[in-house]
Specification:
With about 375 residues, this protein is an alpha/beta fold. It contains 13 helices and 17 strands. The structure holds magnesium ion (MG).
């Protein structure tokens, strides 16, 4: 089964409620969809969101890199030459992690289809079910409390609270949400680089003093402030998770070696695809560092690939943050992974299991 061409399409799904973090506000899930065609008539699906403030990638840059640089290097290759194709993708261009992720997802989909097996089975197998947390956007406190209560009523029991705008206000919001929820939910905080290292130590000590229990705190400081992450990790007992600081396997090695992070957040759009995400999961496991699997604000094609990886690498990836598809008003993908609020269940169909995608606007 040889790769013959790449087609591109846009896919937009409105959000149930606007997604707000310390660095952006978004109202739709907008993915660039990659359709890799083969001489056997079977296609593989991949996708990527544009996250210029996180990865630097836009849909225009992803399209250009895949169409003009990567496509000519992989057309004609057999999809079962998986490692050789991924090697070409990874070395075709520096950076551009979302483009590499999107095309690798489609290639892994085809690779698994060529063996007529669901992707997670070929990655090592495991339980095809996951439970995800859900993100509560930054907003006025009463809106965040209402969103948190709504999430609980939908069956979520782990909430990831977005903060990181103004520290005293952040502390007030977290304390109020924790008091409101009591023992009904586990709380994770995502500061999205909004605090300094000293502010983080101050805030976590104050929250602990107020009796607030936190499972983890994600990326409190700027992505390049590895010294800051280490400063925090040495002074607080709350586990510190690296997100924007942890793109590549080499960066993760540095984070682990320097003791800067207790947990690594793997996202396919940061790691540059499945091949590199697997490396991160494996090297973290070797160091007894747990991983979260996360996603950007992205839809159910690329998040399906992340779910397959998480099921197969459950011994390393113990924290699941794959709420992207459930934040949309509907799921445009027919077949594939079933995203039902907190419950995620993989299909037993070959590859990612996608039958069709509704509302694709081909480019
Ligand atoms: Mg994050």
């Amino acid at each position: 089964m040889k790769i013959s061409a790449i087609r591109f399409a846009k896919l937009q799904v409105p959000l149930k409620t606007p997604f707000k973090t310390a660095i952006r506000t978004v109202e739709n899930i907008t993915d660039l969809v990659i359709i890799v065609e083969t001489d056997a008539g079977i296609v593989g699906y991949g996708s990527a969101p544009a996250t210029p403030v996180i990865t630097g990638d836009t849909h225009e840059s992803i399209y250009y890199v895949l169409n003009n640089i990567i496509q000519p290097q992989i057309v004609g290759m057999d999809v079962q030459e998986l490692n050789a194709i991924c090697h070409k993708i990874q070395h075709a261009v520096v950076g551009n992690s979302s483009a590499k992720a999107a095309i690798e997802i489609a290639i892994y989909d085809l690779w698994a289809k060529s063996f007529n097996a669901p992707l997670y089975q070929l990655l090592g197998g495991g339980s095809p079910k996951l439970r995800t947390d859900v993100t509560i956007s930054i907003d006025k406190l009463d809106k965040m409390l209402a969103d948190a209560n709504l999430a609980l009523s939908r069956g979520f029991d782990i909430l990831k609270i977005k903060i990181g705008t103004e520290i005293e206000n952040d502390i007030v919001r977290v304390e109020a949400i924790a008091k409101e929820l009591g023992n009904r939910a586990t709380l994770r905080l995502d500061v999205n680089q909004g605090w300094t290292a000293k502010q983080t130590v101050y805030a976590l000590q104050k929250l602990a003093h107020l009796g607030v229990k936190l499972e983890l705190v994600e990326q409190p400081v700027k992505s390049n402030d590895i010294d800051g992450l280490r400063y925090i990790s040495e002074r607080v007992t709350t586990p510190i998770m690296a997100d924007e600081s942890a793109f590549s396997p080499l960066q993760v090695i540095d984070l682990i070696r320097t003791g800067a992070a207790d947990i690594i957040n793997i996202k396919l759009m940061k790691s540059a695809g499945l091949s590199q995400a697997i490396k991160i999961a494996d090297l973290a496991e070797l160091h007894n560092i747990p991983c979260m699997i996360g996603c950007m604000l992205e839809g159910s094609i690329s998040v399906a690939a992340a779910a397959h990886l998480a099921c197969a690498k459950a011994s390393s990836i113990s924290l699941i943050d794959l709420d992207g598809p459930t934040l949309g008003q509907y799921n445009p993908v027919v077949g594939g992974v079933n995203f039902d609020d907190a419950s995620i269940e993989l299909s037993q169909s070959p590859g990612l299991g996608i039958d069709s995608i509704q509302g694709l606007q081909e480019l």
